[in-house]
């Protein structure tokens, strides 16, 4: 019977089939960050349990680490934050798990360094106690976020019990036009399917426009699958995937590499596989998008306007849009390009990689951050930061008036204390524009790195394609 | 985990749809170490005004809903972040059952792992439940997990959905790690088989 890529990976990982269309699945790769480690490892210790496969696990500090200079020590927000980082270092050391914490030059956001280290591989089942684990599906892996109790379960057993998801194929036909990025593509997909359209599903992205994306762009795409409710999003591996992984730290070497590559080249959905849901997107319709509301589905092309709730028939929808506009401090019908901003945040597991920084730098080069606007670049990892500095991107940003910072999750979720003040408005390359996400009362507009860079120099949302 | 089979209590109506876990448990409290003491931070941005005083308009600040043990929530409850702090805070506040027409996947699993019943009902029933609970005199609900039924004076006895396996776990309250560790031979067998089929996935450890 014809199978989807998801079904193939599922089948290869079944330790034991269970009732209700569930199975106990083997976990090939487990990423643990300090935001979950304290809880999960202390639970493990309380029960006298050991980590079953420390070799298949890596530890990362990213959520609570400050992104201020670390030369004279790390300026944690509070003692709880410091303890979380000390805990993951100690627990990992005790269990024999490789850990990438502050002080390690490879430290960075878990979903940026996992791929950089070759920790994720096509066909692997990867989990992490973070919903943006869907990022790793870009490699043709089955990767999804889990809760902290489940992190503890994976540490103790190297398995996870799951119910099989329904499958959704998002086929992006044709080409993306110049100026449209992977971020614009996923915002446009979310606009189409809504924030719960993917619930209960695993998405496979297919089509010419997806094949044309680089690995980093595929990561941006898969990263935000969860914003549509899909725990996992994936792209079948191809020559780009193989080229990206070759020579990376945890990737196979020598004869083992050749065997792996041979397998990966065959790893895809069968042509006649049936998906539970099919969505088609015309690549040529994708254009720079920005969000105006308080969820990632509430977006419009930059040339558009803030919607007018009074024009809607559905009472629930009207109330939901009105509530978003009230929180965001926006007027119905207001042109998106008129929205002034206070802050720009370029970084995160969605858009904190080298190609993202290059795209932002290309816009910023020779320009200045607008007066009254503050702007941050938070590289996704130590390796991204080093690479950017070798290319001189840091000079471009610093000369334009950007703050060039250390790697971490930072203001994507403000868990490290780096946050906006109530009422402040931010053009952000992150993944969630939820109420309070970047600080209580703070207002977030999601967009691509190039669009965020354009907003920084203009001082308001603007179409990067029109910047002269 | 404490088993649960039947629960009666005050149900608070919270009709907002697409409520994400950032709203249920905001970022500034994610570093709190004690998972049993998270009630003060539940819905913090809605429960408290920016000056720190209680928002008297928020449902969980009103009598009798300040003592609610059931929350009736709008569609797609618990979307977004996987933070288990959200169910921890709900439980710490005293919530044992949630009623909605759709729960986000990760959040639902987190609820099951914390002994909170996620009861899924049709859109029509959700509206009826929200309507009944909005009247403080009629806000008492019984969630009968054994029979998969909700009971309320206005709504009557109506069915809810929960999978057999989720229901079973909640009824028994077993430690799921113990359950899996009882299958250790099957896990070890898989490790051997996959080490041969896809040896490149093996990192370092020798599998005997």
- In the residues of chain B, how many domains can be counted? 2
Number of helices of chain B: 8
What is the H-and-E element order of chain B? Answer: EHHEHEHEHEEEHHH
Strand percentage of chain B, roughly? 15-25%
Low-pLDDT stretches of chain A: none
Structural class of chain B: alpha/beta
Q: Would you count the extended β strands of chain A for me? A: 19
State the helix count of chain A: 16
Gyration radius of chain B, rounded: 20 Å
Shape of chain B: globular
The spatial strand order of the largest sheet of chain B comes to: 4-3-2-1-5-6-7
Q: Supply the CATH architecture of the largest domain in chain B.
A: Alpha-Beta Barrel
According to CATH, the fold-level topology of the largest domain in chain B is Aconitase, domain 4
Main β-sheet description of chain B? 7 strands, mixed
Average per-residue pLDDT of chain B, rounded, comes to 96
Q: Which percent band covers the strand fraction of chain A?
A: 15-25%
Question: What does this 3D model show about the protein?
Answer:
The complex is a heterodimer of chains A (468) and B (208). Chain A is an alpha/beta fold and 468 residues long. Chain A contains 16 helices and 19 strands. A five-stranded parallel sheet of chain A has the order 5-4-3-6-7. In chain A, helix 13 (354-364) crosses helix 15 and helix 13 (354-364) runs parallel beside helix 16. The longest helix of chain A has 17 residues, at 79-95. The model of chain A has no long low-confidence stretch (mean pLDDT 97). Chain B has 208 residues and is an alpha/beta fold. Chain B has two domains: 6-174, Aconitase, domain 4; 175-208, no CATH class. Chain B is 31% helix and 16% strand. Chain B contains eight helices and seven strands, in the order E-H-H-E-H-E-H-E-H-E-E-E-H-H-H. Chain B has helices spanning 21-24, 44-47, 85-93, 105-112, 123-133, 164-172, 176-181, 184-197, and strands at residues 6-14, 70-73, 97-100, 117-120, 140-144, 149-152, 156-159. In chain B, strand 6 and strand 7 form a beta hairpin. Chain B is globular, with a radius of gyration of 20 Å. The two termini of chain B are 34 Å apart. The mean pLDDT of chain B is 96. The chains are: A alpha/beta (468), B alpha/beta (208).
């Amino acid at each position: 019977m014809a199978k989807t890529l998801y079904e193939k990976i599922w089948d290869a990982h079944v330790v034991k089939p269970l009732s209700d269309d569930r199975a106990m699945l083997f976990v090939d790769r487990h990423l643990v960050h300090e935001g979950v480690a304290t809880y999960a490892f202390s639970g493990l210790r309380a029960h006298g349990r050991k980590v079953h496969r420390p070799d298949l696990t890596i530890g990362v500090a990213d959520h609570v680490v400050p992104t201020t200079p670390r030369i004279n020590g790390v300026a944690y927000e509070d003692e709880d934050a410091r303890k979380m980082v000390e805990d993951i270092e100690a627990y990992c050391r005790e269990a024999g798990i490789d850990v990438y914490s502050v002080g390690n030059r490879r430290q960075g956001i878990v979903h940026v360094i996992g791929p950089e280290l070759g920790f994720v591989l096509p066909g692997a089942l990867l989990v992490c106690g973070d919903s943006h684990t869907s990022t790793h599906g870009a490699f043709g892996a089955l990767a999804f976020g889990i809760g902290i109790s489940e992190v503890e379960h994976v540490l103790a057993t190297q398995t996870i019990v799951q119910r099989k998801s329904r499958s959704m194929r998002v086929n992006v036909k044709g080409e993306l036009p110049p100026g449209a990025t992977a971020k614009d593509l996923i915002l446009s997909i979310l606009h189409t399917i809504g924030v719960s359209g993917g619930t209960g599903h695993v998405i496979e992205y297919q089509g010419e426009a997806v094949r044309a994306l680089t690995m980093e762009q595929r990561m941006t795409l898969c990263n935000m699958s969860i914003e549509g409710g899909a725990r996992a999003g994936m792209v079948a591996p191809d020559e780009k995937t193989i080229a990206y992984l070759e020579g990376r730290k945890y990737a196979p070497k020598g004869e083992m590499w050749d065997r792996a590559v041979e397998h990966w080249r065959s790893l895809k959905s069968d042509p006649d596989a049936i998906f539970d849901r099919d969505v088609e997107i015309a690549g040529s319709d994708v254009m720079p998008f920005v969000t105006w509301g308080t969820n990632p589905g509430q977006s419009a092309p930059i040339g558009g306007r803030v919607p007018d709730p009074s024009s809607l028939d559905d009472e629930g929808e009207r109330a939901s849009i009105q509530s978003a506009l009230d929180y965001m401090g926006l007027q119905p019908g207001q042109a998106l390009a008129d929205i002034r901003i206070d802050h720009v945040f370029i970084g995160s597991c969605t858009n904190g990689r080298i190609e993202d920084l290059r795209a932002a730098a290309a816009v910023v080069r020779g320009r200045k951050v607008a007066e009254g606007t503050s702007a941050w670049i938070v590289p996704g990892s130590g390796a991204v930061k080093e690479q950017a500095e070798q290319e001189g991107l840091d000079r471009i940003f610093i000369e334009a008036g950007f703050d060039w910072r250390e790697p971490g999750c930072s203001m994507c979720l403000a868990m490290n204390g780096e946050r906006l003040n109530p009422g402040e408005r931010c053009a952000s390359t992150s993944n969630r524009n939820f109420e309070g996400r970047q600080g209580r009362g703070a207002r977030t507009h999601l967009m691509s790195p190039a669009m965020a860079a354009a907003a920084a120099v203009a001082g308001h949302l603007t179409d990067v394609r029109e910047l002269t | 985990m404490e088993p649960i089979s039947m629960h009666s209590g005050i149900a608070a109506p919270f009709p907002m749809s697409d409520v994400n876990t950032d709203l249920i448990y905001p970022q500034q409290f994610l570093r709190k170490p004690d998972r049993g003491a998270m009630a003060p931070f539940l819905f913090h941005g809605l429960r408290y005004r920016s000056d720190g005083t209680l928002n008297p308009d928020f449902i969980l600040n009103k009598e009798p809903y300040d003592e609610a043990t059931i929350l009736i929530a709008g569609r797609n409850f618990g979307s977004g972040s996987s933070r288990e702090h959200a169910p921890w805070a709900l439980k710490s506040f005293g919530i044992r059952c949630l009623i909605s027409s759709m729960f986000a996947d990760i959040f639902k699993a987190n609820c099951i792992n914390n002994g909170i019943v996620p009861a899924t009902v049709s859109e029509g029933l959700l509206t009826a439940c929200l309507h009944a609970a909005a009247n403080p005199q009629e806000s008492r609900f019984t969630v009968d997990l054994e029979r998969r039924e909700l009971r309320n004076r206005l709504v009557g006895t109506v069915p809810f959905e929960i999978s057999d396996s989720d229901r079973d776990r909640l009824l028994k309250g077993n430690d799921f790690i113990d359950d899996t560790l009882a299958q250790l031979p099957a896990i070890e067998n898989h490790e051997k088989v996959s080490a041969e089929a896809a040896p490149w996935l093996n990192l370092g450890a020798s599998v005997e």
